[in-house]
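User: Here's a structure from my thesis project, written as structure tokens. My advisor, Dr. K., wants to see whether a designed sequence matches the one we expressed. Can you design one independently, without my sequence as a hint?
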């Protein structure tokens, strides 16, 4: 048996008629650029999130970039974020000429630790960018309390958090804007690159909508210099066809997580994901942690050899990435992030996982820990 980390083929097999019909319609109408499905998806996803506006763009990275640009982040500014995330969280900050300033994570949730946030704020801080990592909301109440006190906007990196909730409200409603990725493997994924910005700020939405499409007012009248960062109609049509399934898929992810939790309980030295009270974790990833980091790579090898597609998200903290050495950070600057990077493993997680697959994964993990225990 082969169990991938994510199985997009299993999903397509279930919804093929919906997807094929949605794509065929776009092909027949040839409205490939800013076609009807773009507007329809924006409205449908805004309704899903219970926000005023969603602006569809080319991908999640561009969603962050356009939001930073629209909020006036530029040369010499600082943006506070976490070093335990995908590099796309910080690339847009650097592209604006601004500097990413890292704050270490809370080791329980892997999200930005609000207790360390205030000390990182300087007169140059122009935005705070928490990431809802693995699908678990960051501690928005604590982050917003500090941000509001300093008058700094919060931009959420919601690339892994479609449908996640914090204190009863969907992610997308907490900061000035929340940036989503619809990369194929995300909880709501297109069949190519796609992204979107959710906001309750109409002016900000209008500004981003203009920026994504060459600063256009009409076809050849350009109010500002913008970008070619539109959401493709074909991708919007795929997303619109998939959106009605998202709740069902999220519930399946949560069931699988609860099953992992139950089955992995009591395995010595293995820590299961901690979920913050009053949040809905949507388990983009199910990430366990080994108390003894020295065993991590061996467990990963063991699972890989058993045909189980485990992964590490993320093995190299951003402050230690070769591309970011110019920021001047060192080993030891963010100890919790560095400890997480060497001790975590992401287990297979996707809605179509079956019980015998989950059992096999748990069996292999128990066997590995048992073998080491006896050795
Ligand atoms: C996927 C992802 C992004 C980037 O999204 P793309 O659509 O691939 O550009 C940004 N941040 C995080 C945390 C992500 O997981």
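Assistant: Designed independently from the structure alone:
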């Amino acid at each position: 048996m082969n169990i991938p980390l994510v199985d997009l083929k299993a999903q397509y097999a279930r919804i093929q008629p919906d997807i094929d019909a949605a794509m065929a319609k776009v092909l027949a109408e040839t409205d490939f650029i800013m076609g009807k499905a773009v507007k329809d998806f924006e409205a449908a996803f805004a309704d899903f999130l219970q926000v005023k506006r969603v602006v569809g763009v080319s991908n999640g990275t561009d969603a962050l970039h356009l939001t930073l640009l629209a909020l006036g982040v530029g040369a010499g500014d600082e943006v506070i974020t976490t070093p335990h995330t995908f590099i796309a969280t910080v690339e847009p900050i650097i592209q604006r000429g601004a500097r990413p300033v890292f704050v270490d994570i809370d080791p329980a949730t892997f999200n930005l630790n609000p207790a360390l946030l205030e000390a990182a704020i300087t007169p140059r801080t122009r935005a705070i960018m928490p990431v809802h990592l693995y699908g678990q909301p960051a501690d928005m109440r604590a982050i917003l309390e500090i941000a509001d006190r300093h008058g700094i906007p919060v931009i959420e990196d919601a690339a892994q958090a479609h449908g996640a909730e914090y204190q009863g409200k969907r992610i997308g409603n907490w900061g000035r804007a929340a940036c989503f990725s619809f990369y194929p493997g995300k909880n709501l994924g297109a069949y190519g690159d796609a992204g979107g910005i959710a906001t309750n700020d109409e002016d900000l939405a209008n500004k981003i909508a203009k920026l994504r499409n060459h600063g256009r007012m009409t076809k050849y009248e350009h109010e500002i210099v913008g970008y070619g960062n539109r959401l493709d109609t074909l991708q919007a049509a795929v997303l619109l066809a998939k959106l009605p399934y998202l709740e069902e898929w999220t519930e399946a992810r949560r069931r699988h997580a609860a099953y992992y939790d139950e089955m992995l309980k009591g395995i010595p030295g293995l820590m299961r994901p901690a979920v913050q009270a009053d949040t809905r974790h949507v388990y983009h990833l199910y990430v366990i942690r080994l108390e003894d980091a020295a065993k991590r790579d061996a467990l990963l090898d063991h699972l890989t050899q058993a045909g189980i597609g485990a992964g590490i998200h993320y093995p190299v903290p951003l402050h230690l990435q070769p591309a970011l050495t110019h920021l001047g950070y060192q080993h030891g600057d963010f100890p919790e992030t560095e400890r997480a990077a060497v001790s975590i493993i992401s287990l297979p997680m996707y809605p179509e996982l079956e019980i015998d697959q989950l059992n096999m994964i748990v069996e292999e993990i128990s066997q590995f820990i048992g073998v080491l225990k006896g050795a």
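When you compare it with your expressed construct, this may help: The radius of gyration is 21 Å.
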